[in-house]
Amino acid sequence: MAKSCNFQKLSITILLLLLLSILTHGNSQEFSRKLSKKSMGMKREKLSHLHFYFHDIVSGKNPTAVKIAEAAMTNRSSTGFGLMAMIDDPLTVGPEPNSKLVGRAQGIYAQASLNDVGLLMVLNFAFVEGKYNGSTLSILGRNSVMSTVREMPIVGGSGLFRFARGYAKAKTHTLDFKTGDAVVEYNVYVFHY
């Protein structure tokens, strides 16, 4: 009988500890937890190549890039250091302005170098065409404008580009020195699920 009573006490104690443990962990505010790729809907990783043209229009009645900040007159440099522009530039299949629209480049670029034309690019490519309609790719990097080809990192994305990583290669197609308008060819290589 004593053995039976001790077994019941031990069983009740273990059940109470187990219940307390469950209640304590159930109400805790976890900072992080591990997830499986499958639970996030992630299948096999793919590498995609996107090719389009970026139209940066700073002149005329309907500019797609507008100056939002400029360095004080006493701090002017020959490179335009401190200049910042907000953009909503069309992305098209071809270099012509009336070419098929595939998305918009939306964000900010800023002249971040005292010694050369080096832009800090913070922007999203927001796609409006085909299977990528509604998806975005995010760029955060340096654009050395005077280099023939510039490489900038893809740091993320949304929609079909969730968990994206890769790089974008930019090459100036045309630049009008009078107006400042430019068409830039982009080749984007991105890993995504």
TrEMBL record:
Keyword annotations:
Apoplast, Secreted, Signal
Which GO terms are recorded in the biological process aspect for this UniProt protein? phenylpropanoid biosynthetic process
Q: Which Pfam families match?
A: Dirigent
What Gene Ontology terms describe where this protein resides (cellular component)? apoplast
Principal cellular location given in the protein's record: secreted
Specify the signal sequence span: 1-28
Functionally, this protein is described as follows: Dirigent proteins impart stereoselectivity on the phenoxy radical-coupling reaction, yielding optically active lignans from two molecules of coniferyl alcohol in the biosynthesis of lignans, flavonolignans, and alkaloids and thus plays a central role in plant secondary metabolism.
Descriptive protein name: Dirigent protein
Organism of this sequence: Nicotiana tabacum (Common tobacco)
Query: What gene name is listed for this protein?
Result: LOC107759922
